[in-house]
Every structure is written in C-alpha cells, then in structure tokens.
Specification:
Elements: E1 3-7, E2 10-27, E3 30-37, E4 46-49, E5 53-60, E6 69-70, E7 90-96, E8 101-106, H1 112-117, E9 121-127, E10 136-145, E11 155-158, H2 164-167, E12 170-173, E13 178-184, E14 191-196, E15 201-205, E16 214-216, E17 218-222, E18 226-231, E19 237-242, H3 246-250, E20 254-260
Parallel strand pairs: 2-5, 4-9, 10-13, 12-20
Antiparallel strand pairs: 1-2, 2-3, 5-7, 6-8, 8-9, 10-11, 13-18, 14-17, 14-19, 15-16, 15-18, 19-20
C-alpha cells in the first residue's frame, strides 16, 4: 500500500519506482534482457484508496529515457507523455487516486511497443472508499517475451515466469472467495485470455463498478484491458487455469489452483 502519511488531514501514499535494465528469468534457464521497474516484470503492484493522494518518485537508473503513464484521472503534467526522464534523472508524479478500480501503469516513451515488450508495466489498484468484500486476492498479469528478437513471442506467462503456477500451484481454500485482478500486457498479439476449469467467475470490467457484468469461465482481453474476477471452488482438488489460446498455454501460460479443505 506504499508508505502512508497524513498531510493536511488527508492520507498520502508514497511510492518509489526505479527503472533498471535487468536480466529476468522468464522460463527455467531462459533469461531475457528486460527494462524493468524495480528489477522485476511485471513491476510492483501499487495500491491506494479512492481519494488518497498518491506520490510516486520515479528514478531512472536505466540506459534509455523512460516515463510512467498511470491509467486514471490526473493533471496533464502527471500523464507521463511529455515528461521524459533521462538516465540518471528523476520525476515526481502526484495526483488524487480516482476513479476506484483496477488500473495500470507503464512507460509511455517512444517507440512505445519496445518499452512495453521489454517489461515496463505494472498494476495500480484503487480500492473503493467502502472497500470490497473480504477475499483471497491475487494479481495476474498476462504477458509475453520475444526471446529471439523477431517481433514475435516465444514465451507466454502470467506474472512473468512460464509454467510457474504449474510447478507451484496457487493454494486456495474450498468455499473461500477468490479475487483475481487480471490484466493483459501481451505485446505482438492482439488478444490474450483467461480460462478456469470446472468453475465460473463473476467479472467486473476495469473494476469501476461494484456489480458484475458477466458470469463466465473464459475472458478475452486486448492489450491494456483488465478486470476483476471473483469465484469460489466448492470442491477440493487441482484445477487448471490457462490462456484459451492454445499456443499461449503450450508456451507457458498455464497453471493450477490447488483447492484444499
């Protein structure tokens, strides 16, 4: 939730994000020369409550100019479009957290495609003032990696490591509400998708309304599209989840929920 402080009777959440060039392991033994926020892809999840003041100090320790563009509502000079931050420079983004929902942040420096596919993106959650019902929460960012630099992805993942949740299933409890903040940052492909086995979920597009619009087991998302999934499993066991684009699943975007009594 960031460092919290009170200023003038309101809550301020302060974050620091650092752009760094880093080798990241995107599949067992496969390393990718990424541009990162804080050395990881996706970047850290930022979170605030609607109405909070958000202050993000951005430091560029990479070798290329970068910015941060936050999805949401803010002033023009906080948009990360023209405020280019060169290597060794820093910039402070400050704005009110609005509207509530699941938002994104990413570099908006040209060529934009390169800065996205190299890994400069993350999730920015703004909780409604009244909160959401208690749940076991997780963020899932769908993405891909062009490991041979041919402008096509060779590896697909959720949260940056191929087959991670196949080797390390997500443990959840039977009957407990699960809330997944799902986002798509896959470059080079028009869509990505999420499918859960043996269950359906309520879906809240962008999370900006408190009522679901769909009850389904598969959701297709374009790049930058995101939403909130809520579901519970009524039976114990191992249940698969994966992209319902077969190529993506076979190249890494596949995992399991391990539902326990």
């Amino acid at each position: 939730m960031g460092e919290e402080r009170q200023e003038g009777g309101r809550t301020v959440r302060e974050y620091e994000l650092v752009a760094r060039d880093a080798e990241v392991e995107v599949a067992p033994g496969v390393f990718y020369p990424a541009w990162t926020f804080d050395g990881q892809v996706p970047g850290p999840t930022l979170r605030a409550r609607e109405g909070d003041r958000v202050r993000v100090t951005f430091k560029n320790e990479g070798t290329h100019p970068h910015t941060i563009h936050f999805h949401g509502i803010h002033a023009a000079n906080m948009d990360g479009t023209f405020e280019i931050v060169g290597p060794g420079q820093e910039y402070v983004y400050e704005f009110d957290a609005e509207p509530f929902g699941m938002h994104l942040y990413h570099c908006h420096t040209t060529p934009l495609r390169k800065h996205i596919e190299k890994g400069l993106y993350g999730v920015f959650i703004i909780d409604p003032k009244e909160g959401r019902p208690p749940a076991d929460e997780m963020v899932m960012v769908m993405n891909g990696f062009d490991t041979n630099f041919d402008a096509e992805n060779e590896v697909y993942t959720v949260n940056g490591v191929a087959f991670h949740y196949q080797r390390h299933p997500v443990e959840i409890k039977k009957g407990e509400l699960v809330r997944v903040y799902l986002a798509n940052f896959t470059e080079f492909d028009l869509i990505n998708s999420m499918h859960i086995h043996a269950n359906f979920f309520d879906y809240y597009p962008t999370g900006t309304r408190l009522e679901p619009t769909e009850y389904t087991d598969t959701k297709m998302l374009a790049q930058g599209e995101r939403g909130i999934m809520e579901f519970a499993y009524g039976r114990a066991g191992s249940f698969m989840f994966h992209a319902h684009v077969n190529e993506f699943a076979e190249l890494g975007w596949l995992g399991f929920f391990k539902v326990e009594e």
